[in-house]
Design a protein that fits this description.
single chain, 192 residues, alpha+beta, Pnp Oxidase, Chain A, 9-stranded antiparallel sheet, 5 helices, 9 strands, elongated
Length: 192
Amino acid sequence: MNNPILYFNELYQEELKHTSVKIPSACCFTTIGVDGFPNSRFVSCKEVVNDHFIITGSKTARKGIEVEQNSKVALAFWWTSTNVQVRVQGLINELDSDSSNKYFQERNRESQIVSIVSNQGEVLDDIANLEQAYKVVEEEYREQVLSTPTSFGAWEIIPFRIEFLIFIDSRFHNRILYEKEGDAWKHTLLKP
């Protein structure tokens, strides 16, 4: 296949047919930390749009600060039901506020309230204060649509390298590397 995004979508749809994983869109998102060390955490890939991988989160949390300072990032997917690993390297770009609003409104209400009351990654002095702030927002806005906090953002990861590793019983796994050259993708087979 000449297009790795189409291949990614095909493999992901196959995984969705078989998986019982609660969040099959989970992937490991790696940034370059402000101290120069790689920094990884799991996020949910919201979708793939225009060949770009979409993630969301707090712009004031560590990941938001790190991508503001260095746009080089990576994603790693591991699909347990189909034994497929996908690694993506690319550049990240913040999307506009309309996109942030769209993805915020798609979150469940509990996650929306947590995004409003919690400054993700800051030192927690007292969980009771955070729980109280949650209850206040929950009560005050019970019948209302919650507004997207300014700290919530959506980003697109524009890939320039995607590697697929499809595990097979013989241990001679299928390993395919796609690299962007201009507007085209070049692919090569790698030894497992």
